[in-house]
C-alpha cells in the first residue's frame, strides 16, 4: 500500500507537471523556412544561453570577420515591426515579426536598409524607437534589412541575433531555426566537477566544504567521447554536484555554453537541463543555477546539476529530491554526466563515489512527516511560482516599443 506521504508527493508532482504545461509556448500552424542572416558560412562567436552575471546570453553571435559593413538579411518571411537606436544595449536593432509566432531581433547594426534608414530623424538622442503595423513593411526571407556594425554594448563587430516568442517574449534558441546552417561535429567538454555537500547534511571526501576535481581530459575535438575517472571518491549524506564545461566547434577557437546536461546516478536520471525557452523574468536566476561566488573569484561557471529552493527556471528538470544525491548506503554509487549540443555531439563522464558512513552527518529519515511536507512544497513550488510569474507578466506585459533587454548581448 502507498504511504500517505508518498501519495501526497505523487499528487503534488502531477499538479506541478500540469501547471508547468500552461507555460508551453504558443504554437502556430504556419511553417516557415528559415534562412541565413548573412551571405557567407555562419561561424559563431557565442551561442544561446551562455551564463553571464545576472543574465543568460539571449541569442547567437554571428561572426562578421571582425569588420563592419556586412549585409544582414531577414531570416524568414514577416514584417519589420520595430526599429530601435540605443547608445547602449543592442545599439541599432531591427525587429522582424514572423507569422509562425516568433520575432527575430538583429543587433549592433551599423545602419538599416535604405527604406528604413530614410524614416529616422537622428536627433543625437541616446534612444529612439519606431513601431510599425504589419502592413507597412512586409519582408521575405532573404530581403536586405540592415548592415552589420559594432553599436551599443558590443566589444567587437558582429551580429547578435535573438529569436523570441512574440506573445510572451520568451527567449528561444536560434539554433532551433538555424542549426541546419551551422557546421558542428565537436562534442562539448567538461573540465571539472564540483561537489557541494548540503550544509549540516552531508560530506564529500571527508569534508563539508565544496571541492572541485578535474577530469584531466586533453583538449580533443571529437564528435563523441567517453571519459572515466579512475579515482574513487567517498561521500555520506546529501551532496549536490555542479559542472564546469564548454562546447566547441571545429570552425573557431571560441567556446560556448552547454545546451544539454544530464546527471545519472546508478543509471537513473536525477537532473537534466535543456537550455531553450527562457522567460526574460528568470534571467537573474542564472546566478543561482551557476555558482556565482565562484565565478566572481575565478571567472569560471560551475552550473549546478540540482535545483536550488524556489528557483523558477523552466529549463531545469529534476527528480523529487531536486537533483541532490543522498548517499545513505555503504556501497559504490555510479555517477555519470552526459553533455550534448544542439547537433547531438555527445560527451560522457563517469566516476564512482563510495558511500562511507561519517559520524558528523546524521541522516534524516525518509519517512517523516516533515520530509513529506518539504517534498510536497518542492513539487508545488513550480506551480505556485509559474502561476504568479504568468499573472505578473500578463499584468505588466510590455508594449512592442519596450520589448528589449538592454545589455543582453
Model description:
Residues 12-23 and 383-408 have low confidence and may be disordered. This protein has helices spanning 4-21, 114-117, 175-178, 286-289, 292-298, 369-395; strands at residues 44-46, 51-52, 55-56, 60-63, 71-73, 78-86, 92-97, 102-112, 127-131, 138-139, 144-148, 158-165, 171-172, 189-204, 211-214, 224-246, 260-265, 268-274, 303-304, 316-318, 325-327, 332-340, 346-355. It is built from 6 helices and 23 strands. It is of the alpha+beta class.
Q: Termini distance?
A: 54 Å
Computed CA radius of gyration, to the nearest angstrom: 23 Å
Alpha-beta content class: alpha+beta
Uncertain parts: 12-23, 383-408
**How confident overall, as mean pLDDT?**
87
Helix content: 10-25%
Main β sheet profile: 11 strands, antiparallel
Descriptive tags:
eleven-stranded antiparallel β-sheet, disordered C terminus, ten-stranded mixed β-sheet, 6 helices, 16% helix
Question: Quick gist of this model?
Answer:
The chain is an alpha+beta fold and 409 residues long. It has helices spanning 4-21, 114-117, 175-178, 286-289, 292-298, 369-395; strands spanning 44-46, 51-52, 55-56, 60-63, 71-73, 78-86, 92-97, 102-112, 127-131, 138-139, 144-148, 158-165, 171-172, 189-204, 211-214, 224-246, 260-265, 268-274, 303-304, 316-318, 325-327, 332-340, 346-355.
